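User: Please fill in residues for this 377-position structure.
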């Protein structure tokens, strides 16, 4: 090839790449793709992949195709901030994430600085939206509930069903786990019930024999665990192995079949809080069928991740822009048709239209136990 042809190729190739990039909109999902909570990262990846595929099949957003990037924060705050900076440097305009509150909160500062819309499908700590609103950020939203709502359901259930019996409150010291345990305790105490034991464990611990011994000595009949399914499952299994037949109650971070894989029969009769089963929502049926035809059951936060991507796509088309000022205004002014039903957002960016119920684990599956008992309205 002559020098002129090489020069022309060098000029044309970047122009071609730039043209291709101009025809796409960069979006991302970020969560624990690796690490102990990778089951939830898989849910997010599946949800985002399917949503992007379906949106692109219908013409994309603003006449452009969505290009999805995957960010792995392993539920680590420092790694989450690094991921957020990488996504910002890569030109991403929307992040469907993160999963852990301890990741979403530090990442949100990066997205605020770079004008990137963030919709978390799963981070329930109130500080995510409370702090953003206080700082005047307009980019932070979530399609899941808050722990000060979820904790009220768990605390009220404990007070109603275990009043007069010894109750323990345990957390894993994480932003999510401690926040949820604190709210559960507050509700329990407000209902006139005082716990007999307050304990904290470390995320990643494997041996909980000392904790179980303390609960046995206190005669605990039920204990609330604020934390993730891996440690919750191990505590439940070890408690039964050591002869403690107390009922474990956990939060939405138990919303994976992997919890039962850890507990085995020791999980029978344990409880958890989560939204009314997303897979049963009428608006979700076509997408649930699509997932199942692809060989995947969209459990837990899969459909929340899908819904967050839907909200972004609808907001961008309505705003005719992916700029944060235009997107934020539409987000607050519009109701969105999603697989989770019709969703709206309040002034802080919290979702309007969902609620929490109590589930019981039975034969390896979680079964809704109570009618809807808390509203996010």
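Assistant: Residues filled in for all 377 positions:
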């Amino acid at each position: 090839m002559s020098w002129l042809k090489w020069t022309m190729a060098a000029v044309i190739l970047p122009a071609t790449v730039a043209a291709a990039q101009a025809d796409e909109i960069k979006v991302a999902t970020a969560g624990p793709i690796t690490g102990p909570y990778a089951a939830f990262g898989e849910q997010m990846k599946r949800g985002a992949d399917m949503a992007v595929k379906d949106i692109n099949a219908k013409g994309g957003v603003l006449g452009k195709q969505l290009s999805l990037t995957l960010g792995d924060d392993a539920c680590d705050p420092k790694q989450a901030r690094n991921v957020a900076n990488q996504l910002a440097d890569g030109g991403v305009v929307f992040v469907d994430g993160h999963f852990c509150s301890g990741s979403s909160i530090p990442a949100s500062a990066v997205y605020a600085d770079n004008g990137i819309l963030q919709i978390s499908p799963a981070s329930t700590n109130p500080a995510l939206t409370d702090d953003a609103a206080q700082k005047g950020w307009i980019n932070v939203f979530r399609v899941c509930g808050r722990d000060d709502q979820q904790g009220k359901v768990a605390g009220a259930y404990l007070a109603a069903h275990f009043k007069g019996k010894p109750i323990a409150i345990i957390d894993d010291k994480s932003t999510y786990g401690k926040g949820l345990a604190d709210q559960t305790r507050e509700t329990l105490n407000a209902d006139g019930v005082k716990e007999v034991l307050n304990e904290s464990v470390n995320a990643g611990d494997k041996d909980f024999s000392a904790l179980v011994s303390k609960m046995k000595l206190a005669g605990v009949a039920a204990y609330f665990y604020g934390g993730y399914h891996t440690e919750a499952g191990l505590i439940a299994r070890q408690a039964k192995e050591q002869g403690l037949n107390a009922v474990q109650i956990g939060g939405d971070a138990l919303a994976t079949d992997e919890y039962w894989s850890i507990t085995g029969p020791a999980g029978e009769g344990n409880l958890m809080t989560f939204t009314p089963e997303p897979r049963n929502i009428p608006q979700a049926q076509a997408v649930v069928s699509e997932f199942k035809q692809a060989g995947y059951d969209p459990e837990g936060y899969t459909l929340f991740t899908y819904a967050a991507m839907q909200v972004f796509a609808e907001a961008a088309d309505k705003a005719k822009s992916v700029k944060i000022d235009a997107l934020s205004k539409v987000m607050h002014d519009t109701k969105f048709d999603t697989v989770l039903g019709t969703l709206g957002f309040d002034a802080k960016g919290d979702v309007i239209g969902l609620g929490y119920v109590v589930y019981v684990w039975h034969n390896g599956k979680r079964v809704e136990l109570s009618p809807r008992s808390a509203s996010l309205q």
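For context: The first helix runs from residue 3 to 22.
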